[in-house]
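Module 6 notes. Inverse folding takes a fixed backbone as the condition and produces residue identities as the prediction. Think of it as a translation problem where the source language is geometry and the target language is the twenty amino acids. Below is one complete input and output pair. Work through it position by position during the lab.
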């Protein structure tokens, strides 16, 4: 009996620590142009090329844990790991089965929600908002402290705080109509705004933290009166930013620009400056290619040289598909961009990326 139990445990699929988790839109069968895509989380080895994922978690397409997003949209599909490293989190649409109501989901009466997935692959979905808003709202991403508090990014009331321990409605940050990506670093919440977002909020593009509306820092904001504080200004022309990561001591930051690639910023004498941009070598002919930059991004800051992991924005037919997971060991501005995984179909797109969840909470 003991041997049988050991064998069963050995066969239980679990994420491996130190690997990459990549949010995938599409199963290779349904077209991304249907604008409602089944979601998967693929696990990849971070050290070299992967012919296929070593683990795949499927998110339900029907039932109470259903969640999907628009795999054809350029802004949806961010992925984050919780501040305590135990959970992966991402946002989307639920409360209806996949393709139960056809069309662009941001314009339909389909609930907005988010999923968490733990190291054992357990999926838990929360639907926090019915459509009932005067504008379409794209849920772009979500992050969590790991203790049932969540913060989301999106447009049209989509930047918000949600306490899953309580019964109250999510709190929308009134002064932040649009945000691209969201992440907790060293117990501080950050978001990115791109160029058009910045114009709408009367701020420049860049990485922002939050204040309480009275000029006081709000590391993990709860109030609807919370406002943005610029941390890392994006250097033109790299203002089509989406994903980002910041070193815990707040001295180095990276952003992903959907056309330019990956940008490194360094804080020197109290000021953030662009160090250099990593352009992404392309594998799709320019005449057919959608984008030449990156979307999802996460960085390993633990070694002597930061290691950047990102998903690319290339694709055929006017959208992201057939794209890649890439790796950059940042030794200098001429560091090589290598491919870790390649989506093999125009019906598949890699979107968000982070590190795999762990069984035990991270140490403070």
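Target side of the pair, the amino acids:
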């Amino acid at each position: 009996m003991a041997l049988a139990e050991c064998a069963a445990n050995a066969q239980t699929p679990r994420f491996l620590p130190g690997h990459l988790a990549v949010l995938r839109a599409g199963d290779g069968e349904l077209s991304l142009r249907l604008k409602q895509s089944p979601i998967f989380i693929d696990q990849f080895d971070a050290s070299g090329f992967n012919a296929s994922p070593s683990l795949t978690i499927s998110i339900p397409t029907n039932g109470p844990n259903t969640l999907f997003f628009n795999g054809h949209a350029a802004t949806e599909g961010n992925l984050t790991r919780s501040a305590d490293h135990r959970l992966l989190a991402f946002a989307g649409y639920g409360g209806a089965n996949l393709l139960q109501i056809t069309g662009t989901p941001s314009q339909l009466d389909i609930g907005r929600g988010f999923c968490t997935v733990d190291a054992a692959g357990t999926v838990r979905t929360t639907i926090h908002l019915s459509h009932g808003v005067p504008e379409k709202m794209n849920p772009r991403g979500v992050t969590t402290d790991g203790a049932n508090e969540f913060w989301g990014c999106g447009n049209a009331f989509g930047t918000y705080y949600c306490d899953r321990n309580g019964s109250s409605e999510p709190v929308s940050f009134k002064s932040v109509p649009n945000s691209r990506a969201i992440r907790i670093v060293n117990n501080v919440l950050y978001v990115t705004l791109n160029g058009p977002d910045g114009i709408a909020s009367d701020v420049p593009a860049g990485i922002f933290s939050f204040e309480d509306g009275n000029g006081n820092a709000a590391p993990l904001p709860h109030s609807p009166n919370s406002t943005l504080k610029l941390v890392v200004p994006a250097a033109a022309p790299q203002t089509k930013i989406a994903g980002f990561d910041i070193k815990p001591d707040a001295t180095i930051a990276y952003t992903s620009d959907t056309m330019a690639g990956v940008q490194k910023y360094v804080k020197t004498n109290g000021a953030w400056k662009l160090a250099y941009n990593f352009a992404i070598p392309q594998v799709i002919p320019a005449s057919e290619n959608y984008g030449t930059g990156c979307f999802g991004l996460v960085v390993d800051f633990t070694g002597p040289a930061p290691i950047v992991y990102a998903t690319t924005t290339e694709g055929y037919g006017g959208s992201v598909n057939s794209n890649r997971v890439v790796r950059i060991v940042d030794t200098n501005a001429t560091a090589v961009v290598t491919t870790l995984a390649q989506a093999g179909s125009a019906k598949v797109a890699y979107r968000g990326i982070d590190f795999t969840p762990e069984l035990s909470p991270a140490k403070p």
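Reference fact for the lab report: Residues 2-11 form the longest helix (10 residues).
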